[in-house]
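Figure 2 data, in text form.
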Amino acid sequence: MPEPPPPPDRRTPLSSERASPPAMGGPPSILRWARRLVAVLISVLALLGAVRLVVPATAGPEGEPPGVRRQLAFLRPALEAGAGDEAQQLFPEGYFFAHALYGLTWVELGMREPPGDRRATALREARWSLARLDSPDGRAPFSQDLTPPYGVFYQGWCNWLRGGVLSLQPADRRDPAELRRFAADSAALGRAFDASKTPYLEAYPGQAWPVDSTVAVASLRLHDTLLPPRYAATTERWLREVRRRLDPRTGLLPHQADPGTGDPAEVARGTSQSIIQRFLVDIDLAFAREQYTRFRDRYVVSPLGLGPAVREYPDGMDGPADVDSGPLPLGVSLSASAVTLGAAQVHADAPLATAMANYGELAGLPIDTPSTKRYAFGLLPIGDAFLAWSKSARPWVAQVPAPPPASISWWWRAPLLAVLAVLGAVPWLPVLRRRLSRRRLRAWRPSDRST
């Protein structure tokens, strides 16, 4: 009987395929390394997203918000290159807002500096912005035939910015021409409100939005802090008439009003409320706090449990999108969400302001360089202008109020951090599976084959 063959040497490969070393540099190797590079990139992006959710992205009403100066460094050349004209193609006040918010953000930063030379840059840039508004291009969408001329939107925002420019100057060294213009424009607004049967003046012929009158009345309150007071009675009358004409569904100022009576013509909406809640603080603090908590309760939501956002219509109600709101995925307005950050900050609602800012750092896809910062790859500079203005928000007239009860906890981040952890780990699953398979092969014995 022939002798049985010797048992296979466990030190030798089980097959010729295993005996052959892998080819180096060939297509399989290139593909393998390409997959690993993609996995590394995805993991790094997931880690970066987690950092952006956790690292503070705002500094409250007193500190300087991180990244805003670099946003302004991006915005100035963008505006000079025509970003305002591009924004004008998107909505009727695009040019105006792009320049106004740039100047207002510089005022906000300047107010955080001690009086004197350190405010020089903020003052220069705010004046540049104001000059762009006080021009044919700045006035183009508005009618000179309204009362006041060019309407309450144009006059209110310009007066607020002009008052901000004066606020940056020492009281005994303010520019006389700027003082005269501010006093004259405030007087025109005061006369228009005193003569009106409604608290909501027209921004366009036959059209009145309460948010525009809110900004204008805030500018009158600013006047009374910079110059001898004149408009306390006007402001009190305005508040009294506003309280009589609140939106019956929400108890908030309506989005649009009848220009003849001031009665609500449209339910309160997030895009206008986010601005109203920022300016009411400087008009009447008690009324502002009441309105803010109503707004926060009815409009701030967490769609799919993935972070705070602001609905365009009150919770439980849907409506159409428009140029102001932009698209409304799950009923949420991205523009209202960005501006609500500023409203939360002036109300000292640090938990919500911080959450909005961190969520914006994740969802806004910011690109940082040593000298600039831009969101959404810099494709929409008007969005950067709104976000920079919101992150730098602080009261101009009132003292920073006591914080309201928190409506959001640190743990809102947990679902998003979990999603990022999964996204960072998934690309490595094939590598892990291959390594586990190799370990099983190494542990495999010939006796296992015979069985």
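Caption note: The chain has 19 helices and six strands.
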